Input
Amino acid sequence: MIEARHTLTGKLLADYCSGPYMDRFFHRIDMVGTKVKGEYPVLMLANHFSWWDGFIQYRLNKELFGRRLYVMMLEEQLCRHKIMNRCGCFSVRKNSRSSVDTMRYAAAVMEHTENMVLIFPQGCIGSIYLPGIEFESGADYLIKRIDNAFKIVFNVNMVDYGSYKKPALTIYHKTVDPGNISSVGLQKAFNSFYGECLAAQTGKVW
Output
């Protein structure tokens, strides 16, 4: 696997792509949700719908959570876009024994309160119009291997154009305690929040 790096070059790139560059392509960007209370490492789970994924969460983290962001990325994609390694991306190879090493690495990152690990649990880019997200096994596998206290942040991102040429992006996020979702299951808990976000989005007047 390829471990994450955090370099000045990577920071400048991520700051630009999640800031001024992103602002050029969206009419407005709104953040709706709850923050983490207390000093905890954070596992963020997000829907995967666009090229902007990663930069959206970088912006969310920078503005509200203030953690050092580690992003799990498919190894073939990371090898194609090597600069992303300098922004905190680390690799995972699907259906490979090395994926166990990736999960061990992510669990070690989650031992430190200043860190955040971002996973897209559906494993591939999908439409924002999906009725729910189908999880692959990685997120559950990782959670079972984190021994220390931590928080989970659900993140759902949706866009609408309304009467504007550029879309509006709404970044929904919710902080939850892992103990509160163990009884219902991770995927079901995420999709419950996903449904709330979808209802809020379709209820907007543009």
